[in-house]
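Dear colleague,

Thank you for sharing your sequence with our group. We've completed the structure prediction you requested, and as agreed, I am returning the results in plain text so they can be pasted directly into your records. Please verify that the sequence below matches your submission; if there's any discrepancy, let me know and we will rerun it promptly.
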Amino acid sequence: MRKIREAIVASARADDFARDAYVFIIRATIHAKHMESYHPALLHLLYRIHPLNPLPARVFLEFVGYYILDLACRQGDLAQAFAVRHLYYGRDEGIDAVLKALVTGDWCSFWQAKEMANANQRRLMEWADERVRKHALQCLGKAYLTAEKTYVERAAQRSWEDLKELDHVGWELSGTNVKIKRIQRR
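Please find the predicted C-alpha cells below.
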C-alpha cells in the first residue's frame, strides 16, 4: 500500500482512482492501527485530493471524523480537534460525545461512545484507552474505600487480573469487593 500511496503522491494524481485508493488505504491502515500509514494518507486525502476531486459528502464527513478522533485520542490535541470540527464538520453525536468525554474526563461516557462507534472509530479511540483508564482508576481511588469488583472492572474496561498485572493497582480483593483504601487508625 505504501508503494501505491508514494506513486500517487509522486505523480500528483487527484483523479477517482487516487481518491478511491486513498480511501481504501486509510480504512485498512486505521483498522490495522498503523499510524505511520494512515495519518499522512488522511492529511493528503483531505488537503490535496479533496480540493481537486471532492469526496462525496458522507465520505468526506467520515474522514474528517477520523481526523478529529486522531487529533483528540492519539495526539491529545483537543483544541485542534475542536478547531477542525468547527471548520469542517457540523454535528455528529458520536464524535461530539467522544470530545465531550475527553474534555470533561467522563470515563463512563467515553466507554459508552466507544461501544456505539463503528470499527474504525473504535480503533482510533483505542489510542486514548490507557489515558481514560488511568483517570478512571484515579477517580475510584480518590472517591471510594471499597467498591464491587464488577463495578471496578466496568469502570476500567479490564478484568481484575489485568488490572493487577498490567495497571499495577495495589488494591485488595476480598470476596466480591475491592478494598481501595484502608482506614488508618490513630
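Summary note from our side: The first strand starts at residue 146 and ends at 148.

Kind regards,
the structure core
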